[in-house]
Design a protein that fits this description.
Elements lengths: L2 E4 L5 H12 L3 E6 L2 H7 L4 E5 L5 H11 L5 E4 L17 H29 L2 E5 L12 H20 L4 E6 L6 H6 L15 H10 L4 E4 H9 L1
């Protein structure tokens, strides 16, 4: 039975993916910062570990829960940064540091801790990306910059680890609490539910193409052909 570790698995895309993989018979190790929502995803084959990926002790707990083999790591946990989103001129440097620490440095630390288990299973790594990593959206400097850095970190890791599949996955706009925080007071009900981005990711994992960056819009087009 394959094993996946999903960070930030209690809400949004992480929760939708957790529920889908659990339904497929995967074993899962899922983390989140808030215990209440995390308890809601717990079930016989879903082990939950509450904590923040910035915390070295929490990352060590995840590694212990995973054990010696890991088929899939999904780096879904992250932060938007300050809300409302400020311009670069008004971006507090402490907020920028915190965003980079969460979305890049903590991700790298978790990867380092879980690479032996991923190598043992010739597994796959998925890092949640964003079009803000590529497009110059006003006020998205901290988040977009952090996702661009994560994309390149994964790009380099894919070149270094030829036995692993390493993907930066752009799920597109989704109706999530993080997306709402980016647009406070606005109606985002026209955005797709996170569950709509799960099937394209499962398609990507089933195909297991070469490591790289993949957008949900392109994967949906492939599924339709």
């Amino acid at each position: 039975m394959p094993l996946a570790c999903i960070t930030g698995g209690s809400l949004g895309f992480g929760r939708a993916l957790t529920e889908a993989l659990a339904g497929d018979g995967w074993e899962l190790v899922v983390d989140a910062r808030h215990l209440g929502p995390l308890r809601e995803v717990a079930r016989p084959r879903v082990r939950t570990v509450a904590g923040d990926i910035q915390d070295p002790e929490h990352r060590a707990a995840l590694a212990r829960a995973v054990g010696e083999r890991l088929d899939l790591l999904v780096l879904n946990a992250g932060t938007l940064g300050p809300s409302p989103l400020p311009t670069v001129e008004r971006l507090a440097l402490d907020d920028l540091r915190q965003t980079l620490e969460t979305n890049v440095v903590a991700q790298a630390a978790l990867l380092q801790g879980l690479l032996p288990a991923l190598r043992a299973a010739r597994g796959a790594i998925v890092g949640l990306s964003s079009d803000a990593a590529r497009e110059p959206y006003a006020t998205w400097g901290a988040y977009g910059g952090s996702k661009a850095a994560l994309d390149q970190l994964l790009n380099v890791l894919g070149a270094e680890e030829s036995d692993l599949a390493v993907y930066a996955f752009d799920p597109g706009d989704m109706r999530t609490a993080m997306h709402q925080a980016a647009f406070p007071g606005e109606d985002i009900s026209d955005r797709p539910l996170p569950s709509e981005s799960v099937a394209p990711l499962r398609h990507l994992l089933a195909l297991r193409p070469e490591s790289g960056r993949y957008r949900v819009a392109d994967l949906v087009g492939e599924q339709a052909r």
